[in-house]
Every structure is written in C-alpha cells, then in structure tokens.
Specification:
Elements (H helix, E strand, L loop, with lengths): L14 E4 L5 H11 L18 H12 L8 H8 L10 H12 L5 E4 L2 E2 L2 H5 L5 H8 L4 E2 L10 H9 L4 E2 L2 E2 L3 H5 L3
Helix pairs in contact: 1-4, 2-3
Amino acid sequence: PLKEIKFFDGGGKPYFTMKDEYHTPYFDTIKKIFNLEKKVKESFISENMIFEVEMMNEIISKIQNSDLKGENWCEKIINSLLSNDKNGFSEFETYGTYVLNHYPQKYTLRTLNSFRECGKQYSRILISKHFKKLSQKYIIISLENKNRPKTLEGVLDWLEKGSVFITNKILVSNSYFSNLK
C-alpha cells in the first residue's frame, strides 16, 4: 500500500475491493461446486480481503458434505477443476461469489486505484522518486516476483539496483529480453 487502507466502512461492514480481472475457469469451478453464478462483472481478486471465519467454515462444510468426488474438501475442489489449468480455482473469487449470492448485505463493494503490474514498469525494488510519483495516482501497487520491467527507464533502474556494470557498459543477457514477450 502507498496510502492508508480502510478495511471497514463507516457502519463496520468489511469491504470487498473489486478489480477488473476475469478468468473463466474460476467461475466454471464455482458453478460445479456450488451451482452459483457470478453476480457482478468485477473480480474479487485483489491485494486484500477480509474473510469472516464463520462464512469460510460454512463454505468448507458445504464442499466437504457435497457429493463431489474426493475424500475431503481439498480433494473435492481439485477434482472439480474442469480443465488442466493450474489456475482453475480462486479462493478470493469463490468466497466473494458465495458471499454475494448468500449474504449480499454483509460486505460493501469498492474499488481502489491500484497498479497490478507495477513491477513490469519499475522492477520489484522501488526507489523513493517512484513511490512519490506512484502515490499521486495509486493507493496500492503490486510488485510480483514474476514481473520484470518492460520500459527503458524500468530496465535502467533495475540494473542500477544490483545488476552488472563493467567499465560503464551495461551487460544484460539476451534471455532477459526474450522473457519480456
């Protein structure tokens, strides 16, 4: 976070922070497990979520007691994946979809200005000038391990923070640039 984040609204209800992502296999799995439809166009996958223990236990119990194939709720989820996609299940989408279908008044929906792929532009190690610039527009940024900078400024900053400099020449392997595609 670049700024303070409130997790509850003025009435004490937790927030769901909504995003613009959509991954069909998540909802195929939710449909198979709970026979539930997506209720909103936004995604529940964000950098933060408040899970209520009672609701989470209810979800796990429903999966455990279902007729789905498997000995326990974990196996039942795995066996419910409709494809070989490693990303066929999301606890954030499942929890959010379940809650919105069964307890629509429990949470308040909101969006926050965020930059999910910040690491692609600035690398994972930011310098203070970047924090100042980014905090003018965003509340949250993500610096994921898989991200590498794709802009010249980002690559130069990345190199400046710890890569190889030899006699004023910057050495970057070809594999770095081939992985940017």
